[in-house]
């Protein structure tokens, strides 16, 4: 090799070495792996099959969203592992990743009621890995989706008309709104995550191969503190033609609100499961 070629090669090597030396490693914030619906920071576990949000710095060099189902375990040169098992990724950005906890984590849980286990979570961005963060995983850890995310108006709507269970004067919602009615046999649909295993096998990053899969445990749903009748709890998947109707990691609960339930524009809506009660500041509007 002549001297000019050697010089060019050496320059390229030094350039690559410098880029690696100054690449900023991704870092997961302490306590930064949260239920993807509730963003609950009370130390509750995350559940296999559920959507989670990971918060931190330098998590991704680009913002990207998964475009098809099943969703991939790599997005925008980012991967996430739970105990060395790759997690499907729905969204990546510098400060936040939305992912699904791999179903394989169910096999790590101790065979006791409400058992939990600590597993290491690692984010890798363009080949650079974060320090592992130990995260508590449990069989179920319910969270209800809201507008906006975390607190306030629940993503809950009438099964017959799709109207959100909010005051009719509510603004900023993606659909029409009116209060949910007590005793409505058409049911109120609630969207949640973290409700645990279902009665069919579901692949990581995918929805069931059947139209509905029921949770192995039926949750308790409280409306204003009063238990509602749970008509269905589970995942929505594909029809016989393979058309996808569900969302990865998103569970649907259909309820009938019990007589005597509190009415008003901001009635608390909670899910109890696996010894965990979802946060109390999620609400719906209820009327007679």
Structure description:
It is a single chain. The chain is mainly beta. It has two domains: 3-138, Immunoglobulins (Immunoglobulin-like, Sandwich); 143-287, no CATH class. The chain is 7% helix and 39% strand. The protein contains one helix and 24 strands. Strands 12, 13, 15, 18, 19, 22, 23 and 24 form an eight-stranded mixed beta sheet that branches. A hairpin with a 4-residue loop joins strand 12 (146-147) and strand 13 (152-154). The longest helix has 20 residues, at 3-22. It is globular, with a radius of gyration of 22 Å. The N and C termini lie far apart (86 Å). The mean pLDDT is 93.
Which tags fit this structure?
288 residues, Immunoglobulin-like, 2 domains, eight-stranded mixed β-sheet, 7% helix
Question: Could you outline the blueprint of secondary structure elements for this entry?
Answer:
Elements: H1 3-22, E1 27-35, E2 51-57, E3 64-65, E4 78-82, E5 85-86, E6 89-92, E7 96-100, E8 116-125, E9 128-129, E10 133-138, E11 143-144, E12 146-147, E13 152-154, E14 156-158, E15 180-181, E16 188-193, E17 212-214, E18 220-223, E19 226-227, E20 229-236, E21 251-256, E22 264-273, E23 276-277, E24 282-287
Parallel strand pairs: 13-24, 15-24
Antiparallel strand pairs: 1-2, 2-7, 3-6, 4-5, 4-8, 6-7, 8-9, 8-10, 11-16, 12-13, 14-16, 16-21, 17-20, 18-19, 18-22, 20-21, 22-23, 22-24
